[in-house]
Amino acid sequence: MEPIIKTSNLSIKFGEHKAVDNINFEMSAKHFKSIIGPNGAGKTTFFNLISGELEPTEGDVFFKGLSLRKKSSVERTRLGIGRSFQITNVFPNLTVLENVRLAVQSKRKVRFHMLNHFLKYKEITNEAIGILEQVLLTDKMHQVANQLSHGEKRKLEIGMLLALDTEILLLDEPTAGMSLEEVPAILDVIRSIKERGDKTILLIEHKMDMIIDLSDSIMVLFNGALLADGTPEEIMNNETVQQAYLGGLAYD
Amino acid sequence: MIKQPLLLSKVNVVYAIVVGVMAVLPFVLDSRTMTILLTQFCIFAILAMSYDILLGYTGIISFGHAMFFGIGAYTTAIMLSDYGPSIGIFAVSIVVGIVLSAIISVISGALTLRLKSHFYAMFTLAISGLFLVLAEKWRTVTKGNDGFTFRAPELFRERLYFYFLVLICLVVVFILLKRIVASPFGKVLVAIRENEQRTRSLGYKTLGYKIIASVIAGAVASLAGSLYAISLRFVNTSVMTMDITLDALMMTIIGGVGTLIGPIIGAGVIEFAQHYLSGLAREYPIFERWIIFFGILYILAVIFFPRGIVGTVSLRYHEWKLKKGQKTKASVKLREKEIQR
Ligand SMILES: Nc1ncnc2c1ncn2[C@@H]1O[C@H](COP(=O)(O)OP(=O)(O)OP(=O)(O)O)[C@@H](O)[C@H]1O
Ligand SMILES: [Mg+2]
């Protein structure tokens, strides 16, 4: 089967520093892959290259065989590559509901409608409220995003990604910095997306138990390069990986 | 739970009353000066609202807004003096001015709105400077710096009728812009103001939105310019100068960015203050430099009312409501207001 997403020789240099170094990877549709690697390994940069936030200095990304070299982040989202951000990246002065509604509106291609009141589009609001129920933010819906706790902002970030309803979901440390009580709820959300079975998911995480539990496969980045790619079992037993990463496992 | 605002909401009733009062005001005051002043106020309110579409809603800083005002003013003046002072020509000149402004905003927007915002601000400054030079040098058409007088359509020689036209334009523009900012399109403009990169990441081609916003703002500013030319029955290069842009900017900031009523109130404050300060200047020469007072007023406004008049008043109102014990709902709104600068 043709991979839904694939990279070839994907590299980016910041000055002399190769943040992503010649990564060749591919993934078939409806697969769940996690990316691990120490801080600064290049995981977020890898996402930025896939989602079009950054341009590679070398190599290319392919979506269903289509080269994305000339595609902006806007076009990639429309093609079906959606992402969430590690550093919360929402609309700070808009309410939680408005944040999600903007994502739903985009998915429903309501773009240049200028003469109708936005509340006429009831289905958009209703769908946004549905998403907020999933990420447990219904009671915060009228609050401005700025006032949310860190954990709630992370939920909102995931809500906006879900609202986009893209084929591929790139999740960049969705539980980073969340309090321990909040993590299981997000884990449930991710698990239920996985169980619905219609999404291709790439997840960056440091929490090993969570990754092993969810992933079909795991890839390990180290100094920008792809160190290993395999089933959770293979990765756990891989010696290089253990030395390079798991050995110094001080993350949570 | 989430309802569309009613046509007969409290706010709309207040608006209707205000418009009613403004319509009878010239009869009550019965003064030519006052009618002229009210006319100017409406024209600049239209201009300031158009500026706020860029600044307050989309987060675009433009230093070239006068260019569109000037295009409208010159188009109307030139067409009326060349083709005769009829209402028909006047109407056509408005349309021509709007179309010209739209074309120029599309071109300059497509060229530069993808730039970082401060580059765009610089560019607008440069291109509007270019238009100013054009107006100065293209003497056969514009009569250079001195400008020219022309005959307004017969009907508008009656100041009162013209005032009503301008008031109607203000109301129509207000309603139209209000619709636009409350539409899905308007929501995307605000999203761009808040976080353009994220808006793109959601799949919106932000450049297109920014260009359309600048077309709308340019078109409305051009309308204001057309009306301005008629109100003076005269046009010269001053309509293209930075002063006009700064007026629009001040009115918007003093009234409150990101609202439509704010710029209207700002225009009122500045037009009337200007009038009375220059009146005082006849008695106390120090007020001749009223522009300095404006500078001070402006600085004070930015320091003490960063939200502008509308923002500050609505914040105080919600605080007051909070004190009255309507806690839950008001407190949410209050916090929203606090954050919306
Ligand atoms: N825009 C940029 N300009 C310059 N250097 C950058 C840029 N983005 C990332 N880097 C560098 O590239 C390297 C990889 O960063 P990246 O954020 O991808 O790491 P990461 O694996 O996501 O780390 P973490 O686990 O901390 O999120 C780091 O050394 C970082 O400093
Ligand atoms: Mg990262």
From TrEMBL, chain A:
Coiled-coil annotated residue ranges, if any: none
GO molecular function: ATP binding
Alphabetical list of Pfam families matching this protein: ABC_tran, BCA_ABC_TP_C
Keyword Cell membrane: no
Annotated ABC transporter domain residues: 5-248
UniProt keyword annotations, A-Z: ATP-binding, Nucleotide-binding, Transport
InterPro entries per UniProt: AAA+_ATPase, ABC_AA/LPS_Transport, ABC_transporter-like_ATP-bd, ABC_transporter-like_CS, BCA_ABC_TP_C, P-loop_NTPase
Recorded superkingdom: Bacteria
SMART domains documented for this protein: AAA
PROSITE patterns linked to this entry: ABC_TRANSPORTER_1, ABC_TRANSPORTER_2
Protein name: ABC transporter ATP-binding protein
Species assigned in the record: Solibacillus merdavium
UniProtKB/TrEMBL annotation, chain B:
Membrane-crossing residue ranges in chain numbering: 12-29, 36-54, 60-80, 87-111, 117-135, 160-177, 211-236, 248-270, 290-315
Membrane topology annotation: Multi-pass membrane protein
Main location: membrane
Name this polypeptide is given: Branched-chain amino acid ABC transporter permease
Pfam families, sorted: BPD_transp_2
Keywords in alphabetical order: Cell membrane, Membrane, Transmembrane, Transmembrane helix
Taxonomic path: Bacteria, Bacillati, Bacillota, Bacilli, Bacillales
This protein's record includes keyword Transmembrane: yes
InterPro entries cross-referenced by the UniProt entry: ABC_transp_permease (IPR001851), LivM-like (IPR043428)
Localization: Cell membrane
